[in-house]
């Protein structure tokens, strides 16, 4: 993607989060620290999940936290956070995620391009397996940089 390359500074490997709100805050922290988003963007993600439910969980074990660009996206990018323990979005455990790919989309068209790139990677079973089993951040970065 133009001007963006995933680095180990944008990858986290965490044990757990106490709830989905904390998981979203953890998974967006590196985007916040890197100047990709504002705090209002993180709040926007949480507000949308509260209002619309866990729409960000796009497949079993996979969440794509994102909000509207006007909520506080500054520059294009994404970060990866993998939790060892599933993060529950529904009390009954019917919706959960371990892999959070947090997006910072500054325009609607970049949102589509980012999603296409990520879906392409996630549709490759071997690459997806690496994302869930990698022992270090470098392995995860390679999945996204060696397309």
Which properties best describe this structure?
alpha/beta; Mannitol-specific EII, Chain A; globular; 5 helices; 147 residues
Explain the layout of strands and helices.
Blueprint: E1 11-14, H1 20-33, H2 39-52, E2 57-59, E3 61-63, E4 77-88, E5 96-104, H3 108-122, H4 125-133, H5 137-145
Parallel strand pairs: 1-4, 3-5
Antiparallel strand pairs: 2-3, 4-5
CATH topology value:
Mannitol-specific EII, Chain A
Q: Main sheet, how many strands, which sense, barrel?
A: 5 strands, mixed
Low-confidence stretches: none
Strand order of the largest sheet: 1-4-5-3-2
Average pLDDT: 92
Query: What's the helix count?
Result: 5
- In one word, what is the shape? globular
Note the beta-strand portion: 15-25%
- Total number of β-strand segments? 5
How would you portray this structure in words?
The chain is an alpha/beta fold and 147 residues long. It has a single domain (8-145), classed as Mannitol-specific EII, Chain A. 41% of the residues lie in helices and 21% in strands. The chain has helices spanning 20-33, 39-52, 108-122, 125-133, 137-145, and strands at 11-14, 57-59, 61-63, 77-88, 96-104. Strands 1-4-5-3-2 form a five-stranded mixed sheet. Helix 1 packs antiparallel against helix 2 (39-52). The longest helix is centred in the C-terminal third of the chain and has 15 residues, at 108-122. The radius of gyration is 14 Å and the shape is globular. It starts with 10 loop residues before the first strand and ends with a helix.
């Amino acid at each position: 993607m133009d001007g963006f390359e995933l680095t180990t500074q944008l990858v986290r490997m965490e044990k757990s989060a106490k709830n989905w709100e904390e998981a979203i805050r953890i998974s967006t922290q590196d985007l916040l620290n890197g100047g990709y988003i504002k705090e209002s963007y993180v709040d926007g993600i949480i507000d949308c999940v509260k209002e619309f439910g866990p729409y960000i969980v796009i497949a079993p074990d996979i969440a794509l936290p994102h909000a509207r660009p006007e909520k506080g996206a500054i520059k294009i990018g994404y970060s990866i956070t993998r939790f060892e323990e599933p993060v529950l979005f529904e009390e009954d455990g019917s919706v959960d995620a371990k892999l959070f790919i947090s997006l910072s989309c500054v325009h609607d068209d970049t949102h589509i391009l980012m999603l296409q790139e990520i879906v392409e990677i996630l549709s490759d079973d071997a690459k997806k397996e690496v994302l869930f089993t990698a022992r270090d951040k470098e392995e995860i970065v390679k999945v996204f940089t060696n397309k």
